[in-house]
# Entry
Amino acid sequence: MYRWNGLDDVPSDWGQCVATIGVFDGVHRGHQRIIARAAEIASERGLPVVVVTFEPHPDEVVRPGSHPPLLTTVRRLGELFAGRGVDALLVLPFDLEFSRLSPDEFVRVVLSERLHAAAVVVGENFRFGHKAVGDVALLGKLGEKYDFTAEGVPLQAANGVTISSSFIRERLAAGDVRGAALALGRPHRVEGVVVRGHQRGRALGFPTANLESPPHMAIPADGVYAGWLLTLGLDGAETDRWPAAISVGTNPTFGGEDRSVEAYALDRDDLDLYGVHAAIEFTDRLRGTVRFDSVEALIEQMRTDVEQVRVLMIR
# Structure
């Protein structure tokens, strides 16, 4: 899959394509429906699929300080798209100047002149252009002007709730990683570099990988979880995976203040992962964070947590 950072990266001889546009944070089941429809049209017409997205998140530019917790990094977006028939990912730098483009200017510059879109597929709630004045109906009218078809895909719902990135963030903030996974179509993942923490886990008999994630990543509510610890190659590909007991929080038993995300790979005390790019995937919440009266009580609870993870993850 091609990745283009900005319009100048699009090859000058790029032909027609089917384009889909959005932030696509999480590439959740609703996004997957949009991409599947774009791929279906592309297959019928013998054209490639191009996803157009933005960095940073438009909210941070339009309303500074309002950056939402991110469900996926841009690099992870590329991985998730590549597995769904997408041929190219165009990441547009989003700044104030870009935010002021009118709907007509956006369509002309991005979709017509650079991508030569023959069809554009978006969610039915898609908005674009300065102050988000453009909608699917206007996109259709501009399609007549610039010679492409436009289609708005109905939003996806689960259990009577519309699937959205905001809904998934709410589930994670509540610690409901199962609900988030249902909407995503896979477990929520937090990526980062393994760094040295206070090394209390090793002293307690449960050495953990302490993950330093990029800014704005969506972290589940404080608590203890079951899931997976993964190591990743330079290209982001998974290199290894272990069932893991995961802790999110400040370690209140030790009077901690800094929030951390760390994972103990079951039965592995031989892993040296410092400096390694890794990921943690959350599958089940075991309990909330508790301040224990003694280290011995904490160790006993950690043993119980690990056994519960073993039951959940090793079948």
User: Anything to note?
Assistant: The chain has two domains: 2-154, 187-313. The CA atoms of residues 253 and 291 lie 5 Å apart. The longest helix spans residues 295-313. The chain is about 30% helix and 30% strand.
